[in-house]
Specification:
Layout lengths: L1 E2 L7 E8 L3 H12 L4 E4 L23 H11 L6 E3 L3 E5 L8 E5 L3 E9 L3 E3 L14 E2 L2 H4 L6 E7 L2 H8 L5 E8 L8 H8 L3 E4 L2 E6 L5 E5 L4 E4 L1 E4 L3 E3 L2 H6 L22 E3 L10 H20 L5
Parallel strand pairs: 1-4, 2-3, 2-7, 3-4, 7-18, 9-16, 10-11, 10-16, 11-12
Antiparallel strand pairs: 5-6, 6-7, 8-17, 13-14, 14-15
Helix pairs in contact: 1-2, 1-7, 4-5
């Protein structure tokens, strides 16, 4: 595995992968095992960096994110994969498929036959979230973190009706449950009625402040003046798509800004595949890995079958 930050002449690869998360590293391993020359480019600022453990990952339950990604990177050594932990500034891929694709960082230009975009989503926690609580006490995925807080008092916070629906996924773990949702109509929704039937509370409003106590407990202050003492907070709607490269590549997106892809992650640009949460923001980690693997297999086939009729 080449890990270099020095300036150099453009290098040519079969596939350039932008993103060093689960999808990108998993894809790199598959392509390396397929005999493809691969460059992986991006920073190590992953979406789950604030978490202390990874869950729902068979045979690696509870592994620390930094250990998981470190192992995945080291496994690329055997395949001769080039890894550049640098900020990507610009991508280009001719829409007519004439190629090649280019990846530009502040110190190098990489040239490849195909591009896999796997740069994930961006976490945007609300400004009231106390320091060092995101990914532990405050989180955005009930499947990834709720179990570790079983038996605690839960708050689920967010802007839309989906917030109330997500709260129902936490009921089995919560000693008590309160939902704070900004959408007034969501307070009267059927999901809200279900929360109440199960003993929870649904409030219209927002969180305006929060305090973390030495015990690890949090006090949330609502816009209506309520103080809520809780041990776990799920924030709905705290992620957003990274649009910079999707816009640069001019791939087709749907009305929500999510790229339109085939089942293997191929975009409207014949040289560009997209995987992981960059393709489907609701993926959990193991799904992102699987997405990267599937795209990698498709890329290998696309290169092998190029020009065949």
């Amino acid at each position: 595995m080449t890990d270099s930050r020095t300036s150099e002449a453009p290098a040519a690869y079969d596939v350039a992968i932008v993103g060093m998360g689960a999808a990108g590293l998993a894809a790199a391993a598959v392509l390396g095992r397929s005999g493809r020359s691969v460059a992986v480019v991006g920073t190590r600022d992953r979406g789950n960096a604030g978490a202390t453990e990874v869950h729902n990952l068979p045979y690696a339950e509870g592994i620390a994110p930094e250990d998981l990604y470190g192992r995945m990177e080291r496994e690329l050594d055997r395949y001769g994969t080039s890894v550049f932990p640098e900020t990507v500034e610009k991508l280009s891929a001719p829409a007519d498929g004439a190629g090649p694709v280019t990846v530009e960082t502040g110190s190098r230009v990489l040239v490849a036959s195909r591009l896999l975009l796997a740069n994930g989503v961006e976490n945007v926690p609300p400004p009231w979230v106390p320091q060092d609580t995101w990914g532990t006490t405050v989180f955005d995925c009930p499947f990834c973190h709720a179990y570790e807080h079983r038996g605690e008092d839960f708050a689920v916070v967010g802007p839309r009706q989906m917030t109330v629906q997500v709260a129902l996924l936490c009921v089995a773990h919560a000693r008590s449950l309160v939902v704070v949702v900004a959408d007034a109509e969501a307070v009267g929704s059927s999901a809200a009625e279900r929360v109440r039937e199960l003993g929870g509370e649904v409030l219209h409003g927002e969180i305006v402040a929060a305090e973390r106590h030495p015990s690890g407990q949090l006090t949330l202050v609502t816009s209506g003046g309520r103080d809520l003492a809780v041990g776990a907070v799920l924030v709905s709607g705290a992620t957003r798509m990274r649009r910079q490269f999707v816009d640069q590549l001019d791939v087709r997106v749907n009305r929500f800004g999510i790229p339109e892809l085939d089942a293997d992650g191929k975009s409207s640009n014949p040289l560009v595949w997209i995987a992981g949460t960059a393709a489907a923001p609701n993926y959990v980690l193991v799904e992102a890995m699987g997405s990267g693997i599937r795209s990698a297999m498709a890329l290998h086939k696309d290169l092998a079958f190029e020009g065949l009729h």
